[in-house]
Design brief:
about 270 residues, alpha/beta, six-stranded mixed β-sheet, globular
Length: about 270
């Protein structure tokens, strides 16, 4: 039987592929277990700096497996509830129950990303979409409630009113509209999707990894507060980063690299 999640590491980038194409990569209990294990492995590996998450064509992810859901409730019956769930979510922010990693995750959305699949995409740090990508929140149409951060992350991406419309109507949003709304960072031809994601990943790999992860963690923590509190989050994070030590020679070497890279991009 084929593996439900494919995992490949090359050039310090782990490519994680949901691999239930016959079920449009629906999130069965097995797939969720394997995905968590694979992402945890990537987090622990010293030869991985960045993850790319995608799906086996033709879909990115159709959400929770509705056949399993209709039989025994599937993952919903095992979801954390109440105050404990909220506390865990707050501690891990976007990298909570579904993508347990501190490393950057690039979502390469190759087809439909629906409901739980949309939540999975939103838990990535940023998204590259194929021209074939489509996005929808059908929680209300199925009769279930989001549990992986959709009501927090979707308004952050597209604004509260658009998020309300997506959730209340269940209507699909195409790739062009998703780009216009800020749901995705880039839309590319389908055949260019993974090469584009890998190019972005190589840009991330070339950074100082300690700084990259610290900055992304600061974005996540600051997104949970407002106003002066967000400034305090950054000030505290910067102080902690500096306290761990900074190598002037390394900074100078990287400064020269930044100048050279900037000239090449003009």
């Amino acid at each position: 039987m084929p593996e439900v999640v494919l995992f490949e590491v090359s050039d310090r980038v782990a490519t994680v592929t949901l691999n239930r194409p016959q079920a449009r990569n629906a999130l069965s209990s097995e797939l969720l277990r394997v995905l968590a294990r694979v992402v945890t492995e990537a987090e622990a590996r010293s030869d991985v700096d960045v993850l790319i998450l995608t799906g086996a064509d033709p879909a990115f992810c159709a959400g929770l497996d509705l056949k399993e859901l209709g039989t025994d409730g599937g993952p919903l019956t095992r979801a954390p509830t109440g105050r404990a769930a909220g506390s865990a979510t707050a501690q891990r922010a976007r990298k909570g129950t579904i993508l347990p990693t501190s490393k950057p995750v690039i979502g390469a959305v190759n087809g439909v990303a629906v409901t739980g699949g949309l939540e999975l995409a939103l838990n990535c740090d940023f998204l590259v979409a194929s021209e074939r990508a489509r996005f929808a929140d059908t929680h209300a149409r199925v009769g279930v409630h989001p549990l992986w951060g959709l009501t927090v992350l979707l308004p952050q991406a597209v604004g509260l009113r658009r998020a309300r419309e997506m959730s209340a109507t269940g209507n699909f949003v195409d790739a062009t509209t998703a780009l216009e709304w800020g749901l995705v960072n880039h839309v590319v031809a389908h055949d260019d999707l993974l090469p584009t994601a890998h190019k972005l990943a190589s840009d991330l790999v070339s950074n100082d990894q300690r700084a990259t992860r610290a900055i992304l963690a600061t974005y996540e923590e600051a997104s949970r507060v407002t106003g002066a509190d967000a400034w305090d989050v950054e000030a505290r994070a910067a102080a902690e980063f500096q306290r761990d030590g900074v190598d002037p020679d390394d900074i100078e070497r990287r400064r020269r690299g930044v100048v050279d890279r900037g000239r090449s991009q003009v």
